[in-house]
Amino acid sequence: MIPITPSIALPESEIEETFIRSPGPGGQHVNKTESAVQLRFNARKSASLSNAVYLRLKTLAGRRMTGSGVMVITANRFRSQERNRADALDRLIDLIRRAAVAPKPRRATKPTQGSKRRHLDSKRQRGDIKKGRGKPGPQD
Question: By percentage, how much of the chain surpasses pLDDT 70?
C-alpha cells in the first residue's frame, strides 16, 4: 500500500509501470536502455478514491488523464530508471494529495453601506472634474 493521505492509500496492484526509451541526447547507451517510465493508474475504477476526489483529480490532471479515466504519467527527467520510477510515483502522489483537499465553499457577501457611499462619492467627484473641462460659457 502506498500512503497518500491518512484516509487514502493506493494498492501497488492498481499502478502499472512500463519502461520506454527516453528521448533526447545521451550517446550510444541511450539507444539500448529503456530508462523512461510510463506510469498508468486507473483512477475511475480505483476503490481507494471517492467520486469527489476523482472529479477533482480529473480537472487537475488535464491531458494526463484519458477519456476512460486512466492517468498516464511519463517521467524521463533522470538518466536512471529507478529515479524516473520514483519521480513518476511522486508526481502521482502529489496530484492525488492536491485532489483530496476539498475547496473551501465561497460565501456570497454584500458591499457595506460605507463602501457604497465611498464609491458613489468618488464617482461624483470624478464627474465634477470632467464637467470642469468644458469650454467656458458666456457667464465665465
Answer: 94
Task: Please give the domain boundaries of the chain with CATH numbers for all domains.
Answer: 2-100 (3.30.160.20)
Say what the pLDDT of residue 107 is. Answer: 93
Scored b (16 or more CB within 10 A) or e, 35-46 reads: bbbbbbbebbeb
Higher pLDDT pick, 118 / 43: 118
pLDDT at 121 over 90: yes
CB 62 within 8 A of CB 112: no
Q: Which DSSP category does 23 fall into?
A: P
Cα dihedral 87, 15, 9, 51 sign: positive
CB proximity list for 97: less than 8 A, separation 6 or greater: 4, 5
Residue 20 in grid coordinates? 520506454
